[in-house]
Design brief:
Layout lengths: L3 E6 L6 H7 L3 E2 L2 E4 L2 E4 L8 H9 L5 E3 L3 H13 L3 E6 L7 H15 L5 E5 L4 H16 L4 H11 L3 E7 L3 H5 L5 H9 L2 E7 L5 E8 L1 H15 L10 E5 L3 H14 L8 E4 L2 H7 L3 E7 L6
Parallel strand pairs: 1-2, 1-6, 6-7, 11-12
Antiparallel strand pairs: 3-4, 3-5, 8-9, 8-13, 9-10, 11-13
Length: 295
């Protein structure tokens, strides 16, 4: 049995099989929609397709983070087994859940003084967060010690790139993130904002691109610009999408054509209910390893 365990949250937006096969415990965020509370439990409480249909029909889900009691409930059985924990949180630039994890860590440190919990700010989101968890798990399985993996995460979390675009501005308008006039004229002009996650783990708009075909080409150009070894990139590439599977497939096909030495085919996941509560439908996100994020 390994002497430490990697844990994370549901907002890593990976399929349930990923967590069960790799034995990675995860804590569920929550959301409320149409007066009903749900767990962000990877599509078990509500099918992902139904969730996005509700949004298209006008629902505005409200999210809530994992609380300290949930983290304690996840951490304590692992500590009782005599194992330490490296917990990766959703980016602090997006959520305050890291504070709850740190409260749970401090509370449990008093009860289990011989055990360790390290809380790592992933500075990542969605399947980018998932790619960091996946790579950390691979490092653990290859023999990295607890301290070695903590040091690796501290450096290389900023080598993980996140690029997003959205082709549906209506949810951003309903959520007050853009004005009604900006949404109207953006829709009229077929504007697809291109965004990324910066070095502080915050989602930043980078460019307004006219047309979906053009933004798909541009997002792959950004991968060419930043990926480790350029078009010789040999790492993994993940995509996530919110009710935009065909767009995601188009991006994946262009990535696989442009980067023939990828470590396996591009993995396409759903953007889950909590991240999707903020993006709405129409978002495609691309994740890969590259140069350090400095802006």
């Amino acid at each position: 049995m390994r002497d430490y365990v990697i844990t994370c949250c549901s907002t890593a937006d990976m399929p349930e099989s990923f967590f069960t096969e790799k034995q990675i415990p995860y804590a569920c965020f929550h959301f409320t929609m149409d007066g009903r509370e749900y767990d962000d439990d990877l599509g078990k409480s509500i099918a992902i397709e139904d969730f996005y249909q509700h949004i298209k029909d006008g629902s505005m889900p409200v999210t809530s983070q994992v609380n300290a009691e949930q983290y304690e409930a996840m951490f304590e059985p692992i500590l009782k087994e005599g194992r330490d924990i490296i917990h990766l949180t959703l980016s602090s630039g997006i959520s305050g859940t890291i504070n709850s994890a740190q409260i749970a860590r401090d509370e449990l440190a008093e009860r289990y003084p011989d055990r360790r919990i390290t809380v790592v700010d992933s500075l990542a989101a969605s399947s980018g967060y998932g790619l960091l968890v996946d790579t950390a798990w691979e490092k653990m399985m290859s023999g990295y010690s607890y301290d070695e993996l903590c040091r690796w995460l501290d450096v290389y979390r900023l080598h993980l790139h996140h690029w997003f675009f959205t082709s549906d501005l209506s949810h951003l308008r309903r959520g007050g993130r853009i004005s009604a006039s900006a949404a109207f004229f953006g829709g009229m002009l077929n504007i697809c904002p291109l965004m990324n996650v910066n070095c502080e783990g915050k989602l930043i708009p980078r460019e307004k691109i006219r047309g979906k075909k053009k933004v798909i080409r541009e997002i792959v150009e950004r991968m060419k610009e930043h990926a480790l070894d350029g078009t010789e990139y040999g790492g993994k590439c993940f995509l996530s999408h919110s009710a935009s599977l065909e767009d995601a497939k188009e991006v994946a096909a262009l990535v696989e054509q442009t980067f023939p030495q990828l470590d396996g085919p591009v993995m396409i996941n759903d953007i889950g209910t909590v991240i999707g509560s903020h993006t709405g439908p129409g978002t495609v996100a691309l994740f890969f390893w590259g140069d350090p994020r400095t802006l």
